[in-house]
Amino acid sequence: MSEAVVQNPQTPVVVARSGVLKRLAKNPLAILAFLLLLGTIAASFLAPVLATHDPNYADLQMVLAGPSAEHILGTDSLGRDVFSRLLFASQVTLAAAALAAVVAIAIGVPAGITAGYFGGVFDGSANWVTNMLMSLPGIIVLLAVRAATGPSVWISMLVFGVLLAPSFYRLTRTAVKSVRNELYVDAARVSGLSDVRIMSRHIFSVVRAPIIIQTANVAGVAIAIQSGLEFLGLGDPLVPTWGVMLSDAFRNVYLTPLLMLWPALAIAITTVCLAILGNALRDSLEDGQKAPRARKRAASAVPVASPAEVSTDTAVNAVSDHLLDVVDLRIGYPQEGGATTTVVDGVSLHVDRGEVLGIVGESGSGKSQTAFAVLGLLPETAEILGGSVTIGTTRTVTPGSRAVSQARIAALRGKGIAYIPQEPMSNLDPAFTIGHQLVRPMVKVLGISKAAAKARALELLATVGIVNPQRTFEAYPHEISGGMAQRVLIAGAVSCEPDLLIADEPTTALDVTVQAEVLDLLRDLQKRLGMGMIIVTHNFGVVSDICDRVVVMKDGRLVEGGDVRTILRAPQHEYTRQLLDSTLEGKTPMSMLTTGTKA
Amino acid sequence: MLIFLLRRLGAGILLLFVITTITYTLLYFSSDGIAQNILGEFATPEQIALKQAELGLDQPLATRYLDWLGGAVTGDLGRSWFNSEPVVSALLNRLPVSLTIVIGALLISAVLAALLGVAAAIKRGWIDRAVQLLSLAGDALPSFVVAIVLVTSLAIQAKIFPATGFVPFADNPALWIMSIALPITALVFQLVAQAAQQFRSAIIDVRRRDFVRTLRSRGLSEREVVFKHVLRSAAPAALTILSLQFVGLLGGSVIIEQIFALPGVGPLAVLSTTQGDIPVVMGVVVYTVIMVILVNLVVDLVNGWLNPKVRVS
Amino acid sequence: MKLRSRAALAAMLTAGALVLTGCGAGGGPAGGGDTAGPTGGTLSIGSLVDVTSFDPAASHVGHYMQYYQPVYDTLILREPNGDLSPMLATDWEYDDTQTELTLTLRDDVTFTDGTKFDAAAVKANIDHFKVANGPQASTAASIEGVRVEDADTAIIDLSAPDPGILLYLAASAGFMGSPAALETEGIISTPVGSGPYVLDTAATVTGATYTYTKNPDYWNPDLQKFDKIEVKPMQDVTARVNALVSGQINAALLDAKTAPQGTGAGLNEITSPVDWQGLFFFDRAGAQSEPLGDVRVRQAINYAIDRQTLLDSLLLGNGEVTSQITGKASAGYVEDLDDYYDFDPKKAKSLLADAGYPDGFDLTLPVNSADVIINAAIVQQLADVGINATQVVIPSTDYRNEIFTGKYSLGYYGIFQGDPWVAINHHIGPNAAFNPLKYEDETSAALIARVQAGDDDAAKELTEYITEEAWFAPFYRVNQLYFFDDKITVENQLQQAVPSIYNYAPAQ
């Protein structure tokens, strides 16, 4: 992973070909950049035809003249036509950049393939050489080379190509390594085909896209460096290039500032277009990292329900005496192309103080989504399609609003409503100590001092059964076990004594022995604090252990709900029965697990 | 921690050794006409021969390099062939200016990139597009092109900033800022680009992580979650990019210092390589490599501080 | 660095009128005794060069003089108008053979380290100068040795009459440092002299600022016009013009392109022609390039160059076209020769045809990478008369060396307009470095011998001969453009790239 991070975010390796070009064609900026680049390259080839004057002809009577009918862009300090020089200069500048790219590819790609495929000593030493090359500032090296060999744009770009080879080496190596790992298994199955044959057939298609992207970047950098050297006056002065023209113009900047504009524009346009093209290529290869375009309207981070709806609804439904009241909630995710995937389709449930509700279902049933909606922690891409959510007297989701009201739910979080996540280790910030993550919310939400919060945190840690609270308090998340982490999360959730606690599969990621302890803990806390609790789970064992009531969800819908004992003993719905039957506990040994085929 | 530092140091020294060897060898082939250049046009052949002996130009490559190396490890980088100034003091004199520009650009870029990345990642919409476009332009445009546009428009034409020269902080803080504003801006423009992109991507990634959701569930404000927690986890990726870019930054600063006539290491590098003043060129190379090693080390340390999990490894 | 000999050398004059143009030319007191006018304050000068060593034997002339003059006195002082006056030597006299030069020295001068200045000090300095391998070492080539007659009398023995020796003693060879310090390494960074100022090492940063403060024990307080002098190396002309315009420095040399900034900012200007620029024909014998051996071909090239247009377009008119290499203030100057060759491509072509090249010929032209523009213009104008020149670009630091190897038949250069003998030694005589193919003929040899003997008419005849024989193709004399602000007055130093330190004074 480190390599991918170190480079520009790398593209996934295998990708459908037609999709790339199609997506590229949809990007107007990329098209513009491509056309501009094409135009520049074409102009450079057509320089002899397009030029209005001989680029080297010095008309000494017309030195440093401004743009005119005869000289479209004016003349330079020797009276040479700027436009014509610009055209011919583009030939050299572009060709030199191409040279650097070619050299970089010619060295980097084979080296990358060899390192990726064979690994071992070559890989190690090539890595070291790569690191060394990447530590060298290009300009200094080129200056030193120039001191040794004299000013030659071709030698410079050749050397620079060597300096650029590492980037191609790295991405080729990464690609080859990933393909090799995949194919190795396949190759073992297919008899008679050598690794090399398979590799060479697949490597090309896999490595092609990243190389093209990198080439675009590299070409831009080469132009920049080359122009920079020439600007310093260190280029070959007899050969017109953009950098040489820029240098000449800067020397006359007091007399004719406009002269600088033309070569500067040429350099700027070309380098920027190359970068745009490179980026566009990379974006069209990436799998939907961007928010879909249909989401423009919901783009703001703090979506709020319209004021009109808010007032009427609180008036109408102010008298709900449930702690949590979810009515006909529907949640969906808009896709590219306009369709919406509905994940929660008309769910209604309620929780009262002191009661524990279980939400049961398989993965994909929408139970976690419902929980998140209550907490106001749905992903940005989610959209509330309908329904309402009321916590206490606050309506956090009103019919017609497209998202949870962040303003309202924010006020509730911590004190009104809290959350215990499923996976303990990934739910603690690795950069801060346990203690910090416990103390800070308490200070903010409860308004107490740090010292008081610390004392409270230590107490809580003891309460949740942590043997050495002080040590855990000072530890970082990666220094404690999964079970301890889960207890910490529980402690954090109850630290501000919330009214409603939502636990999302709190025992799923734990060892079996720890599961029971954690459940005991939860039950204990719930009784003591008199919280309303929702347990989201797929495990009926948990339900029977701790819940008062239970609802069953399937494919985003509520299929059955009611008192736990009733449901467990006499499930009404087919699906509920299937779920109950498929648990291993209490099952007759050696018999079929399910009563019928699952829908 | 100590072992980590020692290992880094060791790797750095090895790097230094390899790079100086390569550079010295390259320069060896360019030292033919030096004696004449130093002495001027009235030099007689006898004088030239004397000078060559004095500078050791008649020695073979290995001897010369080992001589230089021997001095270098004791901190003596020799004297300039042209003005006899000790290379170390020449570098030290010029370091403050170059460091001001380079470190200033780095710090400002890091902060700006973080802010822009946050804005782009969270607000999305037009800010996101604007940041992406600006990043593209900044990344692509060579810093010296930006510099000369700035100089021409804001200094030469509008006369708001000075076009050349460096005013030491001790002399006049206000003028000091004016004299480094344009050079740093030109460098920052390019640095911020990539770093902002990295921050943006990393922030988007980190925000999707579980612990961010959990922290929000605790009641922490969005601002605190983003700026304290998300940024911390997103920073390493961006800082790593910055440290990679630092190499390019050093190169760009050479040209920038020439444009603005800042008495930093840049003009020394250009002059010494043009003249073939090998001791000075070697000194510049040593300085550059050391800077790269140091910055990489600092970034690693900062990343370690930001993310304790990284510290252990 | 664009340092060329023209700016690095001072042309010596023995007599001549001073040509000063420009508004507000400072009429300040010349060095050497005038006590009128205010004193005090700080003088800040921007310099084109950076001093490399404070050893007086390492001194160079031209721009470098401003680094050494504050701390070292010379034996003889050169006035702004070129006259020689006493300084450390109060009197000098040749014997009949012109090979013994007797110097009478001041007896009241002490170096800043307490050592007394006397004849022994003169001997120590000149001995050191001869062997120290400095850039001006060859100016002491004719000095065999120095004899100490008594404390205040030194006799210099010459191997042959040397018309330039007095001028040299007013420049690098004449800088007197403390003998005690001369042999130490410290002299490189810390000068020890008897001059009007001392180097303030604490306030000096190598490569950025050299600060000189008043020498309290100086024997000639009239020469100390300021309390403090700062010389700042600023090789980049943009940096200089900005520093000037913003008041960071009081005076500096600008060029044709930046001069308008100076005038626009209301600064004062001194212009003086120091160098001539043009083509050198090294291969007059035609050994490498046969056509160049024919005088008609060389003359044709002279006719092919449009001097005035070049001057106007490249130097914005800052100079004067000329066909001779000698300056107006030189003894060898012949007025009529200034426009000996006019711009006449037709004549050039007919001369070429006469010489047997009706369709022109091919030529290889070395090009100094710092002079690409002018050479491109030359190539163009040669092409217009049928001469096809192929350019070979040489890095500017190597250009001179390459010329000296003699592998090129011609080349573009800028050289000081010299005093006859100095010019002969530098670029005309058979052993001159700038005559790498060692060309000479009977006529020129005879004339040179007469000049050495001190015959001024011979100098004029030599100029005529060289011009008619088209040994060179001079284009124009270039004006040095020196700018300074209203806080000071400055007097031009004849034939020196920049004014001597003694020529600056605070304004009224």
N-to-C span of chain B: 10 Å
Quote the beta fraction of chain A.
5-15%
Spell the H/E element sequence of chain B. Answer: HHHHHHHHHHHHH
Stretches with pLDDT under 50, minimum 5 residues of chain B = none
Low-confidence stretches of chain A: 1-17, 287-318
Q: Name the overall outline of chain A.
A: elongated
Largest sheet of chain B: none
Number of helices of chain B: 13
Radius of gyration from the alpha-carbon trace of chain B, in angstroms: 24 Å
Describe the structure.
- The complex is a heterotrimer of chains A (599), B (313) and C (508).
- Chain A is an alpha/beta fold and 599 residues long.
- Chain A contains 22 helices and 10 strands.
- In chain A, the strands form 2 sheets. Chain A has a 6-stranded mixed beta sheet with strand order 6-7-8-3-9-10, with helices on both faces. A 4-stranded antiparallel beta sheet of chain A has the order 2-1-4-5.
- Chain A is elongated, with a radius of gyration of 34 Å.
- Chain B has 313 residues and is mainly alpha-helical.
- Chain B is built from 13 helices and no strands.
- Chain C has 508 residues and is an alpha+beta fold.
- Chain C has helices spanning 5-8, 65-68, 119-131, 165-169, 179-182, 237-245, 259-264, 295-304, 307-314, 345-355, 372-384, 396-404, 420-428, 442-452, 456-468, and strands spanning 42-47, 73-74, 76-78, 84-86, 89-94, 100-105, 143-150, 153-158, 175-176, 197-199, 210-214, 228-233, 251-254, 268-281, 319-321, 362-368, 388-394, 410-416, 472-484, 488-490, 504-506.
- In chain C, the strands form 7 sheets. In chain C, strands 13, 14, 15, 18 and 19 form a 5-stranded antiparallel beta sheet that branches. A 4-stranded mixed beta sheet of chain C has the order 1-12-11-10, with helices on one face.
- In chain C, strand 16 (362-368), helix 11 (372-384) and strand 17 (388-394) form a beta-alpha-beta unit.
- In chain C, helix 8 packs antiparallel against helix 10 and helix 14 packs antiparallel against helix 15 (456-468).
- Chain C is globular.
- Chain C starts with a helix and ends with a strand.
- The model of chain C is unreliable at 1-35 (pLDDT under 50).
- Chains A and C meet through loops of A and helix 9 and helix 11 of C.
